[in-house]
Amino acid sequence: MESIASENFIKTLYHFHHVQGKDTKPGSIARELGITSSAATDMARKLSLKKLIQYEKYKALKLTPSGEKMALNILRKHRLWETFLHQVLGLSMHEIHREAELLEHQTSDFLAEKISLYLGNPEKDPHGDPIPNAKGWVNNDDGSIPLAMAHVNHHYFISRLSGSDKEFFDFCHSSHLIIGSLIRVNKHYTINQMIEIEVNNTRLILNKVFAQMIHVKREKE
Question: What are 112-128's pLDDT values in tens digits?
């Protein structure tokens, strides 16, 4: 159980720093993982002794090169499992995330490579997230931006859905907000923090928090 807790801590720290751009102090990691700040600090100290994290009191946490490699290895297994569960077993977008959270910790590097080969070495998972390769390299910069930052009167393709709860994916599915969907941004409501878009000839108004979880790329002119 301790190794699973360590892996989840490392993965969360990586995601906060490289994907979401969030604060990486122990308290922030604690809130995400549902643990106390003191427990997060204790974990940070333990991982620091293992040379996986750079820990300084009252400062943001940083992964060492070894920590980065470990985080990418965990993410590779997670995203490969998501792809396998979605493509082969037909699990929903919400279900694959939940199951992959369990499977990633029990998967050897050998099995991960076999899954990747079986799937044709995919570069992205069903959510649109990049899958790290076996050497620990990943392209996090695909030119996409959160929908909340998209410009009015421009067209975009949905490239990534970064939510994880069932309601998020149920709404996206029923509203045709899926990977590859073409959308048009009609208006930003600055005071009320909402955005109006058009997709599949239907107008939708989303709050900015929801729109932050949908990543888009500009349609080529």
Answer: 999 999 999 999 999 99
Structural domain includes residue 20: yes
Q: Which residues of the chain have pLDDT under 50?
A: none
CATH number of domain containing 162: 2.30.30.90
**Domain hosting residue 17, numbered range:** 2-63
Q: Which residues contact 186 (CB under 8 A, 6 or more apart)?
A: 152, 153, 196, 197, 198, 203
Nearest to 130 by CA among 64, 67, 78: 78
**201: which residues sit within 8 A by CB, 6+ positions away?**
none
What pLDDT is attached to residue 2?
Answer: 61
Q: Is residue 138 part of a domain?
A: no
Is 122 within a domain? no
Phi then psi dihedrals of residue 207, to 5 deg: -80, 160
